[in-house]
TrEMBL record:
Keywords: 4Fe-4S, Electron transport, Iron, Iron-sulfur, Membrane, Metal-binding, Transmembrane, Transmembrane helix, Transport. PANTHER family: FERREDOXIN-TYPE PROTEIN NAPH. The lineage of its organism: Bacteria, Pseudomonadati, Pseudomonadota, Gammaproteobacteria, Thiotrichales. This is Type cbb3 cytochrome oxidase biogenesis protein CcoG, involved in Cu oxidation. The chain crosses the membrane at residues 30-48, 68-96, 153-173, 185-204, 336-355. GO terms for molecular function: 4 iron, 4 sulfur cluster binding; metal ion binding. Residues 258-286 form the 4Fe-4S ferredoxin-type domain. It comes from the Bacteria. GO terms for cellular component: plasma membrane.
Length: 469
C-alpha cells in the first residue's frame, strides 16, 4: 500500500474523463456488461408456460409469496435458500478478493456496470477524453447544450428503464407495463421506479467513481483480505524504472538496449495508463484504495509495449511476491479456507434445491379435547393435517397409518384427497383405536399419504402421536 495516499494528476480535475482503450480486459468487461444487461432487462420478458403462476421465466409474486425462476419455484418456507445464497455471495467475494484483489468491483459490481454504460453513452455523444475535456471548458453554446443535454436525456432514459425493469419482476411484465403507462398501478410501483431511476442517474451518471472511492465500504476492508500472494493489478517497478527511473523515448532512449545501457526502465512515461483509469489514479504509485482492479491500465500499457515491440506485462496482474522475484502461493490457508467455504455453500444450496420435497406437510393433534371415548369403547383423536403441493402437477393421495396397529382413519365423506398444482390444503382427520393402557398411552405414529394419481410417486410421512386415557 505504498502509494495509498498519493494523488495522480488526473484526480486533481473536477471530473474524471477516462480515455477509451482497446484490449483483452476491456473486451472482458464489455462482454460481462452485455451479459448482465441482457439478463436484467430481458428476463422479465421471457415467456415460460406454467400450470400455476405467471407465464414468465423470472417473476417474484408478492401476493402468493413465491419466487419463480424458470423451473424452480421458491416458496416463503424456502427462505433459508436466500440466506445460503447471501452466504455464498459473501464467501465468493472473499475468495475472489484473496486471489485477485478488488476484482469484483472492476467487472461485476452494478456500480461499475452502469457507470460503464453511462460513460459509453457520454463518449458516443461527446467524444473521447480530449473532446470531453474541451467541451467542459467551452462556454455554453448550442453545441454544448445539445451534447450535454442529449447525454443527460439518454442517461435519464436508461435510469428510468432500469427502475421500470426492476418493477417488471414483481408481476406479469406485459400486463404491468401496460398498466404502468395507463397509471393503473399502485403508487408503490411508481415510487420504486422513480427512486431507482434517481439513484441510478446519480450513482452512475453524476457520482460515478466517487461511489467506489468514498462510499463503498468494500474498498475500506479489501486490504485485510489480500496478502503478498494475491494477484492484483501492479506496475513492475524494477522493469519500469530500472536504476535511473522512467523516461520519455527521446533520442538515445528509443530502444530497450539504449535505455538499459543508461539504467532507464521500460516505462516511457506516456501516461496512457493514467488517462484510461476510471478512478483517475496512477498505478505506478502502487496499490491504492481507489483501484477497482479493472485491468484497463494493463490494456493501455500492453498497447504501448506492442507498439514499441517490447514484451507485454509492465503493468499486469501480479502478486507482491512475484514482483519481488519470489514464488506466488495460490494455496494458502486463507484461499483454501475461502475455497472450501465456497464449495460447501454451493453444495448445500444445490443439494437442498435438488432434494426439495415435492409435497410438504404437518400433522398436529387437536388437543381440546385430547381424545374422545366413543360408545363402543374406541378412542378417537383428531388431527389438523396441512399439506402443500409444491409441484406443478395434480396429485391424489390415500391416507393410512403406520405404527399404530388396527387403527382406522376417518375422513368423513371422502376416501382420498386431491391436491391441485401448487395448492395447500388443511384436512381434519380422525383416527380411531382401541383404548391403550400402561406405557402405550401415548404412541407415536405416522400418517402415510400414498400417491395414487399424478406424477408424485413417493409416499409422504407425517409424524404425530395418539393419546389414550
Ligand atoms: S489503476 Fe488500473 S486497475 Fe486500478 S482502477 Fe485504474 S485502470 Fe483500473
Ligand atoms: S502506459 Fe506503461 S509505459 Fe505508459 S506510463 Fe503507463 S506504465 Fe509507463
Amino acid at each position: 500500500m505504498s502509494g495509498c495516499q498519493k494523488k495522480s494528476a488526473n484526480t486533481t480535475t473536477a471530473v474524471i474523463h477516462p480515455r477509451s482503450v482497446k484490449g483483452r480486459f476491456r473486451n472482458m468487461k464489455t462482454m460481462i456488461m452485455v451479459l448482465a444487461y441482457a439478463a436484467f432487462f430481458i428476463f422479465p420478458w421471457i415467456p415460460f408456460a406454467r400450470n400455476v403462476g405467471p407465464d414468465q421465466a423470472v417473476s417474484f409474486d408478492l401476493v402468493t409469496r413465491k419466487f419463480y425462476i424458470f423451473h424452480v419455484v421458491i416458496h416463503a418456507q424456502d427462505i433459508f435458500w436466500l440466506a445460503a445464497l447471501l452466504f455464498l455471495a459473501a464467501v465468493v467475494l472473499f475468495f475472489a478478493t484473496a486471489l485477485a484483489g478488488r476484482v469484483f468491483c472492476g467487472y461485476f459490481c452494478f456500480q461499475t456496470l452502469w457507470t460503464d454504460a453511462f460513460r459509453w453513452i457520454e463518449q458516443k455523444i461527446q467524444g473521447d477524453r480530449v473532446a470531453r475535456i474541451r467541451l467542459d471548458r467551452d462556454k455554453w453554446n448550442a453545441n454544448k447544450i445539445f451534447r450535454k443535454g442529449s447525454t443527460h436525456a439518454l442517461w435519464l432514459l436508461l435510469a428510468f428503464w432500469t427502475g421500470l425493469s426492476f418493477v417488471l419482476y414483481w408481476g406479469y411484465a406485459p400486463e404491468l407495463i401496460q398498466r404502468f403507462f395507463t397509471l393503473d398501478l399502485p403508487s408503490a410501483a411508481y415510487i420504486t421506479t422513480f427512486v431507482l431511476m434517481a439513484t441510478t442517474y446519480l450513482a452512475a451518471g453524476i457520482m460515478r467513481e466517487n461511489v467506489c472511492m468514498h462510499i463503498c465500504p468494500y474498498a475500506r476492508f479489501q486490504s485485510v483480505m489480500i496478502d503478498h500472494n494475491s494477484k492484483i493489478v501492479s506496475y513492475d517497478p524494477k522493469r519500469g524504472e530500472g536504476t535511473a527511473g522512467r523516461a520519455l523515448p527521446k533520442k538515445g532512449l528509443k530502444t530497450q538496449e539504449e535505455r538499459s545501457a543508461k539504467g532507464v526502465g521500460d516505462c516511457v512515461d506516456c501516461g496512457f495508463c493514467v488517462q484510461v483509469c476510471p478512478t483517475g489514479i496512477d498505478i505506478r504509485d502502487g496499490l491504492q484504495l481507489q483501484c477497482i482492479q479493472c485491468g484497463l491500465c494493463i490494456d493501455a500499457c500492453d498497447n504501448i509495449m506492442d507498439k514499441r515491440g517490447w514484451d507485454r506485462g509492465l503493468v499486469r496482474y501480479a502478486s507482491e511476491n512475484e514482483l519481488d522475484g519470489k514464488k506466488t502461493k495460490f494455496f494458502t490457508l486463507r484461499t483454501l479456507g475461502y475455497g472450501l467455504a465456497t464449495l460447501g455453500a454451493i453444495g448445500f444450496l444445490l443439494g437442498s434445491i435438488s432434494m426439495k420435497k415435492p409435497i410438504e406437510g404437518t400433522a398436529r393433534q387437536i388437543r381440546s379435547p385430547l381424545y374422545i371415548m366413543l360408545s363402543d369403547g374406541q378412542i378417537q383423536n383428531r388431527y389438523e393435517v396441512k399439506v402443500q403441493n409444491k409441484t406443478q402437477k395434480l396429485a391424489v393421495f390415500d391416507v393410512t397409518i403406520d405404527g399404530l396397529n388396527n387403527a382406522t382413519v376417518d375422513m368423513g365423506q371422502i376416501k382420498n384427497f386431491t391436491l391441485k398444482p401448487d395448492e395447500s390444503q388443511k384436512l381434519l382427520i380422525k383416527v380411531l383405536h382401541e383404548r391403550l393402557t400402561g406405557e402405550y398411552k401415548d404412541i407415536p405414529f405416522r400418517f402415510v399419504l400414498t400417491p395414487t394419481k399424478g406424477e408424485v410417486t413417493e409416499p409422504v410421512y407425517l409424524p404425530s402421536q395418539f393419546i389414550s386415557p
